[in-house]
Automatic annotation (TrEMBL):
Pfam families: AsnC_trans_reg, HTH_24. SMART domains: HTH_ASNC. PROSITE patterns: HTH_ASNC_2 (PS50956). SUPFAM superfamilies: Dimeric alpha+beta barrel, Winged helix' DNA-binding domain. Keywords: DNA-binding, Transcription, Transcription regulation. Gene3D superfamilies: 3.30.70.920, Winged helix-like DNA-binding domain superfamily/Winged helix DNA-binding domain (1.10.10.10). This is Transcriptional regulator.
Length: 164
């Protein structure tokens, strides 16, 4: 069970990975030494897996194509999902792998430079796996919010009034 101090430190880091330990101490009322110890323990235990930056690649001028791939798979009873999942997440194109409830078993988020590149990846690397029975690909047309960060503020659209 996690104590409140640890939870508060994690929440600060989740909101802003660049926040200093001094700022966390101020926000939480902990000493800087205590924050240092908590963060070190969280890193060593694997609770903090990585520090991440959310980048708006469209704004940076280096666009990527993202797709969400839903997989229906067949499994051997004694093995489960783990061997297939490990194979899937080793592909550099795969950004995330999630186990789902419902009609599909797994969801992948993949990226590439073009729709064609992503389509060929799915056709040549994912669909050809023995356990994969069916795939459905959804290309992401626009991302409005990523990891809690709003990427595109609402555009102000001025419309002409409609009168009867």
């Amino acid at each position: 069970m996690m104590d409140n101090n640890t939870r508060h430190v994690l929440e600060c880091l989740e909101e802003d990975a660049r926040i200093s330990h001094e700022e966390i101490a101020t926000l939480t009322g902990l000493t800087i030494d205590k924050v240092d110890r908590i963060v070190k323990e969280l890193e060593e235990s694997g609770i903090i897996r990585k520090y991440k930056t959310v980048i708006d690649w469209d704004l940076a001028g280096d666009e990527y194509v993202y797709a969400i791939i839903e997989l229906k798979v067949s499994l051997e009873r004694s093995i489960g999902y783990q061997p297939l999942v490990e194979r899937l997440y080793k592909f550099p194109e795969v950004r995330s792998v999630r186990l789902l409830s419902g009609q599909y078993d797994l969801s992948l988020t993949v990226s590439g430079k073009t729709m064609k590149e992503v389509a060929f990846f799915v056709a040549e690397k994912i669909s050809t796996l023995e356990q994969v029975q069916h795939t459905t690909t959804h290309f992401v047309l626009k991302t409005y919010k990523e990891d809690g960060v709003i990427l595109h503020e609402q555009d102000h659209v001025s419309r002409l009034p409609v009168t009867p």
